C-alpha cells in the first residue's frame, strides 16, 4: 500500500495569498480533497491522507511530523503563488539537499502544467529547490515536493483559478503526477461492469402479468407445464431466461393478434 500525504497549505487565520475574492487556503484545500478522491476512487494500492481536511491552522512542523509519524511514502504540499501581481505560471519545488524527490517533482510539474494548459497557455517557471520547512522536515524519510500552481495575485492566473473546472484539472494534475511517480495502476473496471450486469428488475405487477401469460401458454402446451410458471411465481429467472421468456411471450402475442 502506497501512503500519500497531501498537505493543503495554510488554513484558519493563515489565509495564504488573498486576492480577487479568493483565498489560497480554500483553493488548495479544494484541490487537495479532489486529488485524494481521484487517487482513491480510480487507483488501487494507495492510501491518501490530508494534513487538514477543513479550515484550520496547523504549524508547519506538525504537518511534516504527521507525514513522518504515519510513515508516508510521498508528501505533496499544495500551494498557490503570489508576487507583485506581475508574475504568473507554475513552479515546483523539492528540498535543496534532496535528489530522490526529483522524479516526483518532474512528474507533478509536467502533469499540473499539461492539465492547466487544456484551458490556457501558462508560464512554465520550472523545477526549483528551496529550504521550505515542510520539505526540510520530510525529504529524508519520503519523496517530498511542494507545488505552486499559478499566481493568485495575477489577473490572468486568477481568471483561471476562478473556474471550477481548472481547479479540478489542477487536482487531476496532482493525482496523475503522484500516479506516475508511485507507479500506481488504475482500478479494473470489472466491478463496475458487474454492477451494470446486475439482475434485471421487474415490478411485482410485471411478475404477476408474466406468471399469467406463462400459465396460459403452459395450458396451451407451448411451455413445459409447471416449470416456468413456478419459476416466474418465485421470481427465480436468470437474466437470459427472462429475456428468452419475454421474447416467447411477445411472439405469441403477435401470433394471437
Ligand atoms: Zn502558500
UniProtKB/TrEMBL annotation:
Q: Does the keyword Hydrolase apply?
A: yes
MurNAc-LAA domain sequence ranges:
64-179
- Gene3D superfamilies named in the record: Zn-dependent exopeptidases
Q: Which domain of life is it from?
A: Bacteria
Q: Which Pfam family, any one, appears in the UniProt record? A: Amidase_3
Organism, scientific name: Salsuginibacillus halophilus
One Gene Ontology BP term is: peptidoglycan catabolic process
Q: Which UniProt keywords apply?
A: Hydrolase
Identify the GO cellular component terms for this protein.
Answer: outer membrane-bounded periplasmic space
What protein name applies here? N-acetylmuramoyl-L-alanine amidase
GO terms, molecular function: N-acetylmuramoyl-L-alanine amidase activity
What InterPro entries does the record tag this protein with? MurNAc-LAA_cat, N-acetylmuramoyl_amidase_3
Amino acid at each position: 500500500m502506497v501512503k500519500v500525504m497531501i498537505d493543503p497549505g495554510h488554513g484558519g487565520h493563515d489565509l495564504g495569498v488573498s486576492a480577487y475574492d479568493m483565498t489560497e487556503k480554500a483553493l488548495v484545500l479544494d484541490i487537495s480533497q479532489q486529488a485524494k478522491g481521484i487517487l482513491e476512487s480510480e487507483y488501487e494500492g494507495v492510501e491518501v491522507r490530508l494534513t487538514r481536511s477543513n479550515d484550520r491552522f496547523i504549524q508547519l512542523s506538525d504537518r511534516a511530523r504527521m507525514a513522518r509519524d504515519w510513515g508516508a511514502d510521498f508528501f505533496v504540499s499544495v500551494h498557490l503563488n503570489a508576487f507583485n501581481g506581475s508574475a504568473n505560471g507554475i513552479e515546483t519545488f523539492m528540498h535543496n539537499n534532496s535528489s530522490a524527490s526529483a522524479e516526483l517533482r518532474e512528474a507533478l510539474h509536467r502533469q499540473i502544467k499539461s492539465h492547466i494548459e487544456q484551458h490556457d497557455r501558462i508560464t512554465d517557471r520550472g523545477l526549483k529547490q528551496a529550504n521550505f520547512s515542510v520539505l526540510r522536515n520530510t525529504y529524508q524519510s519520503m519523496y517530498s515536493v511542494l507545488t505552486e500552481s499559478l499566481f493568485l495575485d495575477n489577473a490572468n492566473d486568477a481568471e483561471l483559478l476562478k473556474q471550477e473546472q481548472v481547479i479540478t484539472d489542477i487536482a487531476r494534475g496532482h493525482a496523475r503526477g503522484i500516479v506516475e511517480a508511485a507507479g500506481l495502476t488504475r482500478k479494473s473496471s470489472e466491478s463496475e461492469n458487474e454492477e451494470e450486469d446486475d439482475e434485471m428488475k421487474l415490478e411485482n405487477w410485471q411478475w404477476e402479468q408474466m406468471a399469467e401469460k406463462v400459465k396460459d401458454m403452459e395450458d396451451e402446451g407451448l411451455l413445459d407445464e409447471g416449470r416456468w410458471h413456478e419459476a416466474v411465481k418465485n421470481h427465480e429467472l436468470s437474466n437470459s431466461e427472462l429475456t428468452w421468456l419475454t421474447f416467447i411471450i411477445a411472439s405469441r402475442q403477435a401470433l394471437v393478434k
